[in-house]
Amino acid sequence: MLHTIVVLPIWSKQRVLSTITTILLEFNLFKSAKHTQAQDLTRQRWSTRLFIIFLCIAVFIITTYSSINQQTKTVVVNNPLLDTIEKWQADSIVALSLYCPCSQISSPYKNVIRLTPKYHQICSSYFITSKWMNSINAAAHIALHLYFADFRASADFFKLLQSLCTFANNTISNALISFGNTHFVTAEFLTRQVFENQMNSSAESFI
User: Fold this and answer.
1) Over the stretch 185-205, which tens digit does the pLDDT of each residue have?
2) Are 199 and 124 in the same domain?
3) Residue 143 belongs to what domain range?
């Protein structure tokens, strides 16, 4: 009986490296049946190498960008509480993309600020009341010859003082009504600090 012995070639490490090097050097993605000369093949192989290099660079850039790029997720919250909004505003990262539009962009100042005028004490005293005026007039009729420095002879002075206080009260009241009906306009939610600054500025302008 005859036995056939097949002898397989032994691939040495040097031969393997040589084969791989040859494959890489002759690798050509741009083969063309019309361009088969040595110069054309060399140009095609260099084009292949440049293409692979640029492809690797592009893949590296895209991979790196995707790994470091933060993904933005939009979250819509309807009618959030004031404490919740202020908590978001305090977060430096969330505050950069926070957008909180107002359902009502304008509101009268009388709904957001209250101004309380402080009048001179004389304008709220007993000396400008009708009762005091009547008592002064009655005393003047009883004593016709009063000393000029006697306050009972100064009824006209108290009437003038009463008129001035009434004029001041009416002027300030009308100004407060006009200011209260003026609308404060903002398209989005303001921080507490910005809101307080604008209110203080408006109040100072009124004063």
Assistant:
1) 888 878 888 888 888 888 787
2) yes
3) 101-206
Q: What is the pLDDT of residues 40-64, one digit of tens each?
A: 778 888 888 888 889 999 999 988 8
Degrees, nearest 5: CA angle 181-185-191? 120
- Burial category of 88 from C-beta neighbours within 10 Å (exposed 0-12, middle 13-18, buried 19 and up): middle
**Residue 142 to residue 153: CA distance in whole angstroms:** 11
Residue 171 — left, alpha, or beta (φ > 0 → left; ψ -120 to 50 → alpha)? alpha
Instruction: Verify that 55 and 109 share a domain, yes or no.
Output: no
Contacts made by residues 68-71, CB under 8 angstroms, sequence distance 24+: none
Note the pLDDT tens digit of each residue in 66-125.
777 666 777 888 888 888 888 888 887 777 778 888 778 888 888 888 888 888 888 888
Residues 196 and 109 in one domain: yes
Sign of the CA dihedral 98, 104, 105, 109?
Answer: negative
184 in the same domain as 124: yes
